[in-house]
Amino acid sequence: MLFRSSAAICGALVALAISVAIARSETRGDHSSAVVDAASGDAIIGAASTYNPFKPGKEEGGPKTASGERYDPSGWTAAIKTSLRRKFGGVEFGARPKYALIEAVGKKVIVKINDVGPLRPGRIIDLNERTMRHFDPSMDLGVIPDVKVSPLAGDNWTPGPVG
Asked: Which domain holds residue 1?
């Protein structure tokens, strides 16, 4: 009887430890691939570019994003092509930003979609500088082809790299 009670307590503690570890990883943004894959919607594949409205010579965008937030080159954010706005749940002024999983060159990152724009032909998403540097550290490419963008359900995501 004592052995069964000890085994039951041990099993309960292991289950608790696992659930705490999962909860911690989700709040820190260390989303496991299984969690991200389960939450992903229909993916869109196309080219990704980058922009920073504060750099001289930039014609697109502005300091305020479609969600009303100020453009932040150090965040994990992006602007989706205007025609894809509905697929990403709206992305409108004053509305909560949406989230997406971006996959390219063997890397994954969760970004906050807080802007929209009339991107150049073939491009589906504009990444802010920090996000683009994750995929292209030297910023030499300018455009990354064959980027997979999957909308994420809900708004409890922490933007950043997915390990």
From this structure: 1-30
pLDDT bracket for residue 7 (50, 70, 90): very low
Mapped onto helix, strand or coil, the DSSP state of residue 73 is coil
- Residue 141 pLDDT > 60, yes or no? yes
As for how many domains the chain has, the answer is 2
Burial of 86 per CB tally in 10 Å (0-12, 13-18, 19+): exposed
Cα 135 from chain centre: 13
Q: Are residues 11 and 47 in the same domain?
A: no
**DSSP states along 101-163:** EEEETTEEEEEEEEEEE-PPTTEEEEE-HHHHHHH-TT--SSEEEEEEEEEESSS----EE--
Based on the fold, state whether residues 124 and 141 are members of the same structural domain.
yes
Name the strand (E) or helix (H) holding 34. Answer: helix 33-39
The alpha-carbon radius of gyration of the chain (Å, integer) is 19
Residues 81, 136 share a domain? yes
The residue to which tokens 């696992």 are assigned: 18
Give the C-alpha separation, 142 to 135, whole Å.
Answer: 11
Residue 95: band (very low, low, confident or very high) from pLDDT cuts 50, 70, 90 = low
Q: Are residues 42 and 20 in the same domain?
A: no
The pTM assigned to this predicted structure is: 0.70
